[in-house]
Design goal:
The protein has about 400 residues and is an alpha+beta fold. The protein is about 35% helix and about 15% strand. The chain is globular and about 50 Å long.
């Protein structure tokens, strides 16, 4: 889970950290090249040649739609990556959850500055934090100081641990309890630190305010109005709908690629990263969000109030985090908005221009087992997003 790629950073074991980090080949820079036909395909081919088993990308822009696929969608059969196949979007889920909460604030049903305790009495009381001192805004912006629960749900790093534990399910309350046993990252509001626990709690707040599970609110407020018919909230269903490429994770440097298409439910089943979609639907969501189709102007402005991310975040220089979305500078000027996601065997990175007119989503269907390779993969993915948007 990128800005789920942060899941890797939070995992205690170094091997698991490498397994959860992002990947890619450096793609270079330069806005002029992005406008030439075929650049998206050449970038996808370069990623595949650098070791990614399968790559797909879709760019929706005023001049039309461009797509690219490279590599294979299944190492065993050699079949190609399917067009607009289903993918796990991981922490991109956070942008959907944040949008729902901002809609609720616009309806006057809660305030961003409400303490978490108001909506979840006693739920955040422990070594890791106190809900009386943490606000809803701080959850959405990762400034709460709450520790990440991820390290507690990957007890056995490696392929054997993935297979053994992938069916294990946890309630939201259990995930929060795991986190609260750890020391806080910092005092609430004093710094920025990515923690998936924040969005598990955000989902719980949605239910406390509305009386409905967060996934019902996402469906009713976002998916149905935008007709995102291929975006799903599978919960504890670990299987991807067809068609889809298979995901592969290298759990150790030089080790084999392990098929990880089946979700790892200990961290793939909650409001911090459970959703499944397609590149077309992800692009449509972010374009609608930035165009003001989902939030009133003042609510979108709140979402875009950013803070700098920490030095160890791993994102491009100048990246800043708002409420469920981040802003990354573009090499051609300005910046793009989005929220990436990742897990065992996949990386997804959406980006949309500030006017919502151009959106791109890049997906890598495998990940290496070494931290250096993961860092290269992430740089390559973000460079690919940059080139695609700078050419529109």
């Amino acid at each position: 889970m990128q800005t789920t790629r942060r899941r890797a950073v939070r995992t205690a074991a170094a091997a698991c950290a490498a397994a959860l980090l992002a990947v890619l080949v450096p793609a270079g820079s330069g806005a002029a090249a992005a406008g030439r036909p075929g650049t998206l395909q050449r970038d996808a081919d370069a990623l595949h040649e650098a070791g990614v088993t399968g790559v797909s990308a879709r760019l929706d822009a005023p001049h039309g739609v461009r797509t690219a696929r490279s590599g294979v969608g299944d190492l065993r059969t050699g079949r190609p990556v399917p067009p607009n196949g289903y993918v796990r979007i991981g922490s991109t889920t956070k942008a959907f959850v944040a949008t729902v909460l901002l809609q609720l604030t616009g309806e006057g049903r809660l305030s961003l500055d409400d303490p978490v305790e108001r909506w979840l009495p006693g739920a955040v009381r422990g070594r890791g934090g106190d809900g009386r001192r943490i606000t809803v805004r701080q959850l959405l912006q990762h400034t709460s100081g709450l520790p990440d629960y991820i390290a507690d749900v990957v007890p056995e790093p490696g392929a054997a641990g993935y297979r053994k534990n992938r069916w294990t399910t946890h309630t939201s309350e259990q995930r929060v309890a795991f986190a609260l046993r750890r020391p806080p990252l910092f005092e609430p509001g004093t710094a920025w630190g990515y923690s998936n626990t924040n969005y598990v709690l955000a989902g719980m707040v949605v239910e406390a305010v509305t009386g409905h599970p967060w996934e019902e609110e996402v469906r009713g407020r976002i998916l149905r109005p935008l007709r995102l018919t291929r975006t799903l909230v599978p919960g504890d269903d670990p299987l991807l709908p067809r068609p889809h490429a298979r995901n592969h994770q290298q759990f150790e440097p030089g080790g084999p690629m392990v098929d990880t298409t089946v979700a790892y439910l200990p961290f793939d089943g909650d409001a911090d990263g459970t959703m499944v979609g397609t590149a077309a639907d992800v692009n449509r969501f972010f374009s609608a969000l930035l165009r003001g189709e989902l939030l009133a102007p003042d609510r979108l402005a709140e979402m875009q109030r950013t803070v700098p991310v920490s030095d160890d975040h791993g994102g491009p220089p100048g990246t800043r985090y708002g409420l469920g979305i981040s802003r990354t500078p573009l090499s051609c000027g300005g910046g793009y908005w989005g929220h990436g996601g990742s897990g065992f065997g996949y990386v997804v990175q959406p980006g949309v221009t500030a006017d919502g007119r151009s959106a791109v989503t890049v997906v890598a269907h495998s990940r290496p087992g070494d931290a250096a390779g993961s860092a290269r993969q992430f740089r390559g993915v973000t460079d690919m997003v940059d080139r695609a948007l700078c050419g529109t």
